[in-house]
Amino acid sequence: MCGKYHITTEDENLSFQEAVRQMMLEHPELSVQLGDVVPSQIAPVYTREGQAPMRFGFKPHFMKRLLINARSETAHTSPMFAPLLQKSRILVPARAFYEWSDQKVPHLFGRPNGGMIHMAALAFPAEPVPHFVILTRAAVGKPGAVHPRMPVMFESLELQDAWLHQDNLAQPLLQIADEEEYINLLAG
Length: 188
Prior knowledge:
CATH class: Alpha Beta
CATH topology: hypothetical protein yedk fold
Radius of gyration: 15 Å
Number of strands: 11
Number of domains: 1
Shape: globular
Largest sheet: 7 strands, mixed
CATH superfamily: SOS response associated peptidase-like
Structural class: alpha+beta
Strand content: 25-35%
Helix content: 10-25%
Oligomer: single chain
Protein backbone atom coordinates (compact mmCIF):
# COMPACT_ATOMS: atom_id res chain seq x y z
CA MET A 1 0.00 0.00 0.00
CA CYS A 2 1.41 3.32 -1.02
CA GLY A 3 1.56 5.57 2.03
CA LYS A 4 4.45 7.80 1.04
CA TYR A 5 5.99 8.92 -2.22
CA HIS A 6 8.66 11.31 -3.45
CA ILE A 7 8.25 14.12 -5.97
CA THR A 8 10.73 16.70 -7.16
CA THR A 9 11.11 19.10 -10.04
CA GLU A 10 14.85 18.56 -10.23
CA ASP A 11 16.04 17.02 -13.49
CA GLU A 12 12.51 17.00 -14.90
CA ASN A 13 11.35 18.57 -18.12
CA LEU A 14 10.83 22.32 -18.16
CA SER A 15 7.08 22.09 -18.74
CA PHE A 16 6.63 20.09 -15.50
CA GLN A 17 8.84 22.52 -13.58
CA GLU A 18 6.93 25.49 -14.97
CA ALA A 19 3.54 23.90 -14.23
CA VAL A 20 4.50 23.27 -10.60
CA ARG A 21 5.87 26.82 -10.25
CA GLN A 22 2.72 28.30 -11.80
CA MET A 23 0.46 26.19 -9.56
CA MET A 24 2.32 27.42 -6.47
CA LEU A 25 1.98 31.04 -7.66
CA GLU A 26 -1.75 30.57 -8.25
CA HIS A 27 -2.26 29.05 -4.80
CA PRO A 28 0.02 30.95 -2.38
CA GLU A 29 -2.36 30.13 0.48
CA LEU A 30 -1.57 26.43 0.15
CA SER A 31 1.53 24.68 1.36
CA VAL A 32 2.30 22.46 -1.64
CA GLN A 33 4.69 19.68 -0.68
CA LEU A 34 7.66 18.62 -2.76
CA GLY A 35 10.12 15.95 -1.63
CA ASP A 36 8.57 13.18 0.45
CA VAL A 37 4.76 13.40 0.46
CA VAL A 38 2.78 11.71 3.23
CA PRO A 39 -0.95 11.53 3.90
CA SER A 40 -2.67 14.85 4.71
CA GLN A 41 -0.14 16.90 2.71
CA ILE A 42 -1.01 18.84 -0.44
CA ALA A 43 0.86 17.86 -3.61
CA PRO A 44 0.61 18.47 -7.37
CA VAL A 45 -1.50 16.05 -9.40
CA TYR A 46 -2.74 15.89 -12.99
CA THR A 47 -6.47 16.22 -13.69
CA ARG A 48 -8.39 16.36 -16.98
CA GLU A 49 -7.84 20.11 -16.96
CA GLY A 50 -4.12 20.05 -16.13
CA GLN A 51 -2.04 20.26 -12.98
CA ALA A 52 -3.74 21.07 -9.67
CA PRO A 53 -3.03 20.89 -5.94
CA MET A 54 -4.77 18.13 -3.95
CA ARG A 55 -4.53 16.68 -0.46
CA PHE A 56 -3.26 13.09 -0.10
CA GLY A 57 -5.84 11.02 1.77
CA PHE A 58 -9.54 11.25 2.48
CA LYS A 59 -11.39 10.78 5.78
CA PRO A 60 -14.89 9.38 5.30
CA HIS A 61 -17.28 10.34 8.11
CA PHE A 62 -17.64 6.68 9.13
CA MET A 63 -13.90 6.00 9.53
CA LYS A 64 -11.53 7.01 12.29
CA ARG A 65 -8.45 6.97 10.09
CA LEU A 66 -7.45 8.62 6.85
CA LEU A 67 -8.09 6.51 3.76
CA ILE A 68 -5.04 6.69 1.44
CA ASN A 69 -5.46 3.78 -0.99
CA ALA A 70 -8.20 1.98 -2.91
CA ARG A 71 -8.00 -1.51 -4.39
CA SER A 72 -8.10 -1.25 -8.18
CA GLU A 73 -9.71 -4.69 -8.50
CA THR A 74 -12.85 -3.65 -6.62
CA ALA A 75 -13.07 0.12 -7.18
CA HIS A 76 -15.74 -0.28 -9.87
CA THR A 77 -18.10 -2.09 -7.43
CA SER A 78 -17.47 0.10 -4.38
CA PRO A 79 -20.23 2.61 -3.53
CA MET A 80 -17.50 5.03 -2.46
CA PHE A 81 -15.13 4.64 -5.41
CA ALA A 82 -17.30 3.64 -8.41
CA PRO A 83 -18.66 7.18 -9.01
CA LEU A 84 -15.13 8.61 -8.78
CA LEU A 85 -13.82 6.00 -11.20
CA GLN A 86 -16.25 7.36 -13.77
CA LYS A 87 -15.47 11.08 -13.51
CA SER A 88 -12.75 11.88 -10.96
CA ARG A 89 -9.62 10.10 -12.15
CA ILE A 90 -6.25 11.77 -11.66
CA LEU A 91 -2.57 10.95 -12.01
CA VAL A 92 -0.09 11.48 -9.19
CA PRO A 93 3.38 12.27 -10.55
CA ALA A 94 6.28 10.96 -8.50
CA ARG A 95 9.94 10.06 -8.76
CA ALA A 96 9.44 7.04 -6.51
CA PHE A 97 7.14 5.46 -3.94
CA TYR A 98 7.83 3.76 -0.63
CA GLU A 99 6.69 0.35 0.55
CA TRP A 100 7.42 -1.09 3.99
CA SER A 101 8.52 -4.62 4.71
CA ASP A 102 7.01 -6.71 7.51
CA GLN A 103 9.94 -5.51 9.65
CA LYS A 104 8.78 -1.88 9.05
CA VAL A 105 11.82 -1.09 6.89
CA PRO A 106 11.03 1.43 4.11
CA HIS A 107 12.05 0.55 0.54
CA LEU A 108 12.05 3.15 -2.24
CA PHE A 109 10.96 2.09 -5.75
CA GLY A 110 11.29 4.15 -8.89
CA ARG A 111 12.56 4.03 -12.42
CA PRO A 112 16.18 3.00 -12.78
CA ASN A 113 16.85 6.12 -14.88
CA GLY A 114 15.20 8.37 -12.30
CA GLY A 115 12.31 9.48 -14.54
CA MET A 116 8.77 10.18 -13.41
CA ILE A 117 6.17 7.56 -12.65
CA HIS A 118 2.45 8.35 -12.82
CA MET A 119 0.23 6.66 -10.25
CA ALA A 120 -3.49 6.23 -10.89
CA ALA A 121 -5.67 7.89 -8.26
CA LEU A 122 -9.21 9.03 -7.52
CA ALA A 123 -10.18 12.52 -6.37
CA PHE A 124 -12.82 13.43 -3.78
CA PRO A 125 -14.34 16.91 -4.04
CA ALA A 126 -13.51 19.08 -1.02
CA GLU A 127 -12.71 22.68 -0.08
CA PRO A 128 -10.28 24.38 -0.22
CA VAL A 129 -8.70 21.56 -2.27
CA PRO A 130 -9.90 18.10 -3.32
CA HIS A 131 -8.51 14.99 -1.65
CA PHE A 132 -7.13 11.89 -3.38
CA VAL A 133 -6.46 8.21 -2.80
CA ILE A 134 -3.97 6.15 -4.81
CA LEU A 135 -5.20 3.01 -6.56
CA THR A 136 -3.23 -0.13 -5.75
CA ARG A 137 -2.82 -3.53 -7.35
CA ALA A 138 -1.08 -6.80 -6.56
CA ALA A 139 2.65 -6.14 -6.40
CA VAL A 140 5.01 -7.56 -9.00
CA GLY A 141 8.78 -7.42 -9.52
CA LYS A 142 10.96 -5.94 -6.80
CA PRO A 143 8.09 -4.28 -4.90
CA GLY A 144 6.42 -7.70 -4.67
CA ALA A 145 9.39 -9.01 -2.68
CA VAL A 146 8.71 -6.34 -0.03
CA HIS A 147 4.93 -5.81 0.09
CA PRO A 148 1.87 -7.50 -1.45
CA ARG A 149 0.44 -4.26 -2.93
CA MET A 150 1.84 -1.44 -5.07
CA PRO A 151 0.40 1.58 -6.92
CA VAL A 152 -1.25 1.24 -10.31
CA MET A 153 1.00 3.14 -12.72
CA PHE A 154 0.66 4.18 -16.33
CA GLU A 155 3.98 4.61 -18.12
CA SER A 156 2.99 5.57 -21.65
CA LEU A 157 1.53 8.95 -22.55
CA GLU A 158 -1.29 7.14 -24.36
CA LEU A 159 -2.33 5.25 -21.24
CA GLN A 160 -2.01 8.38 -19.09
CA ASP A 161 -4.22 10.33 -21.52
CA ALA A 162 -6.76 7.50 -21.69
CA TRP A 163 -6.89 7.30 -17.88
CA LEU A 164 -7.63 11.01 -17.57
CA HIS A 165 -9.99 11.45 -20.52
CA GLN A 166 -11.67 8.19 -21.58
CA ASP A 167 -14.46 7.47 -19.09
CA ASN A 168 -15.47 4.25 -20.84
CA LEU A 169 -11.92 2.87 -20.47
CA ALA A 170 -11.41 3.48 -16.74
CA GLN A 171 -12.20 -0.03 -15.51
CA PRO A 172 -10.54 -1.84 -18.45
CA LEU A 173 -7.37 0.23 -17.95
CA LEU A 174 -7.14 -1.00 -14.37
CA GLN A 175 -7.42 -4.58 -15.61
CA ILE A 176 -4.92 -4.46 -18.46
CA ALA A 177 -1.92 -3.42 -16.43
CA ASP A 178 0.95 -5.22 -18.13
CA GLU A 179 3.08 -7.06 -15.58
CA GLU A 180 6.07 -7.00 -17.90
CA GLU A 181 5.78 -3.22 -18.14
CA TYR A 182 5.73 -2.95 -14.34
CA ILE A 183 8.74 -5.20 -13.99
CA ASN A 184 10.66 -3.17 -16.59
CA LEU A 185 9.48 0.13 -15.12
CA LEU A 186 10.86 -0.72 -11.69
CA ALA A 187 13.86 -2.83 -12.69
CA GLY A 188 17.32 -1.96 -11.61
